[in-house]
TrEMBL record:
Compartments it resides in: Membrane
Catalytic activity: L-threonyl-[protein] + ATP = O-phospho-L-threonyl-[protein] + ADP + H(+); L-seryl-[protein] + ATP = O-phospho-L-seryl-[protein] + ADP + H(+)
A Gene Ontology term for the protein's cellular component: membrane
Organism: Morus notabilis
PROSITE patterns noted in UniProt: PROTEIN_KINASE_ATP, PROTEIN_KINASE_DOM, PROTEIN_KINASE_ST
Protein name, per record: non-specific serine/threonine protein kinase
Length: 681
């Protein structure tokens, strides 16, 4: 061990065979040089010395760069220092880039010190900041307290890492999303001692309860705004906005518009996709989950963030109780109600039998008439008209629930004396979205006929009771098939499901009498029959187009994570929104995981499309197929499917292929060009 801290292995002639200065960890010492290709790697935390998330490299081009995972966030090129052949830590405390015998400039140039008075080190800390530290050699050099390492003045880069990550971009000027500085749904703030702190956004809680810093991100402490269809005013009332001053979320606006502050707040409350609205100088920008790279700083004057959070369940119950309160005592209401019943009971009994008889005769005719009037464009209907009582008995009082949506619930039932299983969809909301969903679903599916679509058998339209009867799919949904087991489903079945879903969409877009945009393609809406044949279902959000129509303008429809970017831009909607959703589902089928998984320890893996593109770019598709030996044996098909999915999920709808080309790409008939980063087009 030499006096400068270099640990050396030498031969008998004192020739250095190995030295620790050539293989630094997270720290440099005075007189130590960081050479081209060498790097520093931060520790995981102040007390955990395993490798952390940050890295500092003197690259072959001479640029000294700080990285979070694969993304640069500070470098000497941007500070106009140029490139050097090595970076040297001088005893005076300066850290310089050097080229040959010349000095290019300081990476850190603090106030000069007396080397005899202090020990020194420069470390890439666990928070990603490169700092120079001092330690007094004698107690006489300590002004207050005991001797300890402390950060030297003007000796940190970057000086405000929160601000740095708020503006950093990756390759091709794409904003940094895959690896935010703080975890998803959290924000960064500089403490009084100039160190960054990560905190959960108000209304969110740490994903790791035993970790003070939410590096793995935060989760909502409330039930998120349902986004299965257009949000109603009633649903919006379950949420409120928390105002935070001097907070900015600078990237990934899906909506940017000139509005007043109140309009901005109301717009976010009604929008089921809005998680945060940022207001500054008459401009409203909305962000959706997962939130990334938020920060708070006193210099962000005039910027307000309005964070949408669910109301306290107790308050919701109180509001409902308040609505039902009439100002009358319970006993008074009981007496008055009893008198009214006694006065009416005889009259009601006389009319009841007559009324039920007339209603029963008229209900069947009226429901068919109403359906026909609502959907005259779809032609002759070949559907069975069920009585509500008949379906109530078939489902044993709606006993066995198969699935649930925002405005409907699906139950298992049996017809033909228990011989024929069916799926009965009951519309729970009888006005607004529920009424619209019922009409849309009948209109969309009644004129279709394709082996990859679930068949509608009949309906019930008795006043408040609106139900749809479908053939029963014994193997459940694709979501259960992919995510319901720890073992990987059969690769061949997954390929057939992908092709079947693609063919169903091609039929809806190009081969059906009326062009149909499904608007809600996701694993929960792809069902599997006895042979695991894919059957697309749930047309409640579908949009029907005329034969001469290729696009339409409508409100946001779909499910979070599968919705194409153009929905948020209020652009005209085409069948390419289904192509985008199919691309997301295709990646889920290949990888057997959900498109967003906030619980993953590796932040690069949280958003599936980002993870898949990075692994494709590196030629490491095998990393997408953990414990999936079947798929690993068919890597060419896997590559073809991944490339197809990356083209389908391009941000620009014009860059996405139509479903006919998608099928040709999946089959290997059409050569697939190299896909660009989906978010960079």
């Amino acid at each position: 061990m030499l006096d400068d801290g270099n640990f050396v292995l030498a031969d008998k002639d004192s020739v250095h065979l190995w030295e620790s200065f050539d293989v630094p960890t997270d720290t440099l010492l005075p007189n130590q040089a960081l050479k081209k290709g060498n790097s520093l790697v931060s520790r995981s935390s102040e007390t955990n010395y395993s490798e952390g998330r940050f890295q500092a490299i003197l690259r072959d081009d001479g640029n000294f760069v700080l990285f979070l995972m694969d993304f640069p966030y500070w470098d000497t090129f941007s500070t106009h220092l140029g490139n050097g052949s090595e970076m040297i830590f001088k005893e005076s405390g300066s850290i310089y880039l050097a080229r040959g015998n010349g000095w290019l400039g300081p990476v850190i140039e603090p106030d000069p010190i007396e080397p005899n008075e202090f020990y020194q080190r420069a470390s890439l800390d666990s928070d990603g900041v490169f700092r120079r530290y001092l330690y007094p050699k004698a107690i006489s050099n300590v002004s207050v307290g005991t001797r300890t390492w402390f950060v030297a003045a003007n000796s940190s880069e970057p000086q405000n890492i929160c601000a740095r990550f708020a503006s950093v971009v990756g390759s091709n000027n794409v904003p940094l999303r895959a690896s935010p500085y703080c975890g998803f749904n959290s924000y960064c703030v500089m403490s009084d001692d100039k160190k960054p702190q990560c905190k959960c956004t108000p209304g969110y809680v740490n994903s790791e309860s035993d970790n003070e810093v939410p590096i793995s991100g935060c989760k909502p402490s409330f039930h998120p705004h349902e986004c299965n269809e257009i949000s109603s005013e009633e649903e919006a009332q379950n949420f409120t906005l928390t105002e935070v001053l001097n907070m900015e979320w600078p990237q990934f606006d899906y909506f940017l518009h000139k509005e007043t502050e109140e309009e901005c707040k109301e717009d976010c409350l009604r929008d089921c996709y809005c998680a945060v609205a940022v207001y500054q100088q008459g401009i409203c920008s909305k962000k959706k989950q997962p939130l990334t790279n938020g920060w708070i700083d006193p210099l962000l004057v005039g910027i307000k963030s309005f964070i949408k959070v669910g109301k306290d369940p107790v308050k919701l119950e109180a509001n409902r109780s308040k609505k039902n309160h009439s100002g009358m005592s319970p006993n008074g209401a009981l007496v008055l109600g009893s008198l009214a019943v006694l006065n009416l009971i005889i009259f009601s009994a006389v009319l009841l039998a007559y009324f039920l008889l007339i209603r029963r005769k008229a209900s069947r005719h009226q429901s068919v008439t109403n359906i026909s009037k609502s959907f005259p464009e779809t032609g002759e209907m070949n559907l069975r008209n069920f009585d509500y009582k008949e379906l109530e008995e078939a489902t044993e009082g709606f006993k066995e629930e198969l699935g649930r949506g925002a405005s409907s619930t699906v139950y298992k039932g049996f017809l033909d004396q228990g011989k024929r299983p069916v799926a009965v969809k009951r519309i729970d909301k009888i006005v607004g979205e529920g009424e619209r969903e019922f009409k849309t679903e009948v209109s969309a599916i009644r004129g279709t006929n394709h082996k990859n679509l679930v068949r509608l058998l009949g309906f019930c339209n008795e006043g408040q009771h609106k139900l749809l009867v479908y053939e029963f799919m014994s193997n459940g949904s694709l979501a259960r098939f992919l995510f319901g087991s720890n073992s990987k489903p059969n690769w061949e079945k997954r390929m057939r499901i992908s092709m079947g879903t693609a063919k169903a969409l091609l039929y809806l877009h190009e081969e059906c009498n009326i062009q149909i945009i499904h608007c809600d393609i996701k694993p929960q809406n792809i069902l599997l029959d006895d042979s695991f044949l894919a059957r697309v279902s749930d047309f409640g959000l579908a949009k029907l187009l005329r034969l001469d129509q290729t696009r339409t303008v409508t409100g946001i429809r779909g499910t979070r994570g599968y919705v194409a970017p153009e929905w948020f831009k209020k652009s005209a909607i085409t069948s390419k929104v289904d192509v985008y959703s199919f691309g997301v589902v295709l990646l889920e089928i290949v990888c057997c995981r959900k498109n967003v998984e906030l619980d993953l320890e590796d932040e690069n893996k949280i958003i599936l499309s980002d993870w898949a593109y990075d692994r494709y770019r590196e030629g490491r598709l095998d990393l997408l197929l953990e414990n999936d030996e079947d798929a690993k044996k068919d890597v060419k098909t896997v590559e073809r499917f991944v490339k197809t999915a990356l083209w389908c999920t391009q941000e620009d709808p014009l860059a996405r292929p139509c479903m006919k080309k998608v099928i040709q790409m999946l089959e290997g008939v059409l050569e697939i060009p190299l896909p660009p980063d989906p978010s960079s087009v």
